[in-house]
Specification:
197 residues, alpha/beta, 37% helix, globular
Length: 197
C-alpha cells in the first residue's frame, strides 16, 4: 500500500483526511508561491491553471525527499472582480479584504496535484462561488475580534465550518472544496491507487 503524504501545513486539510479515514503523513512544503504566481501571470494562465501549478510545485518539492510515496499538493486562490487575494498577514489587511469582498460574489478555486517519483500522476480543480452579505464596519470588527488570528490562515478570512458561515448570503460549490480539499474525487483516486480499499 503506497504511503500518502500531504504537502501542506493546513490543519483543515489534515483534519479532513483524518476524519475520512485516509492514512497519511504531513510534510509541509516550503515552496515560495510568489515566483510561481508571477510566472503563471506572465504566461497568462487561468486562475484554475495557476492553482494546479501551485499544487504541483508543492507536491514536487516534498516528493524529492519521499520518492516512493504519493505526495498530495493543494492550493486555493480567491478571485473577485479580477483581483486575486493572498492570505492576509495581519488583521488590518484581513479587515480590508473583508470590506472589499462584502456584498460581492467571489470565486474560490481549489486545485490538487498528486506526484509520485517526481512526476505528476493526477490533478483536479474545482471552482466555488460565494456571495458575502453586505457587512457593516462594526460587524466586520466584531467578527474578526471573536474569530481571532486563526482567520489569517484562510485566503478568504473565513472558515465556513465555523463563525465564518455568518458572512454569507449564498454559496454555490462543494463544501469540501471550499474548505480546501475536494475530497470526493480525491477519495476515488486513492481507491484506484490502493491507498484505500
Amino acid at each position: 500500500m503506497p504511503q500518502l503524504i500531504l504537502a501542506s501545513a493546513s490543519q483543515v486539510r489534515a483534519r479532513l483526511l483524518e476524519a475520512a479515514g485516509v492514512p497519511h503523513e504531513v510534510v509541509a512544503s516550503a515552496v515560495d508561491e510568489q515566483p510561481i504566481k508571477k510566472r503563471c501571470r506572465d504566461e497568462n494562465l487561468t486562475v484554475e491553471q495557476m492553482a494546479l501549478e501551485l499544487s504541483k510545485e508543492k507536491a514536487l518539492s516534498v516528493s524529492e525527499n519521499h520518492p516512493d510515496s504519493l505526495v498530495l499538493g493543494a492550493d486555493q486562490i480567491l478571485e473577485c472582480e479580477g483581483r486575486q487575494f493572498d492570505k492576509p498577514n495581519n488583521m488590518t489587511l484581513a479587515r480590508e479584504n473583508l470590506k472589499f469582498l462584502q456584498g460581492r460574489t467571489h470565486s474560490l478555486v481549489s486545485g490538487m496535484s498528486v506526484v509520485s517519483k517526481g512526476h505528476e500522476i493526477w490533478r483536479h480543480v474545482e471552482t466555488s462561488h460565494l456571495s458575502l452579505l453586505p457587512l457593516s464596519d462594526g460587524f466586520i470588527d466584531d467578527y474578526l475580534e471573536k474569530s481571532g488570528p486563526d482567520v489569517l490562515n484562510s485566503v478568504g478570512v473565513y472558515f465556513l465550518e465555523g463563525r465564518g458561515v455568518q458572512l454569507f448570503e449564498k454559496i454555490d460549490g462543494d463544501f469540501f472544496s471550499i474548505l480546501g480539499l475536494p475530497l470526493l474525487p480525491l477519495l476515488a483516486f486513492l481507491r484506484r491507487q490502493s491507498v484505500l480499499k
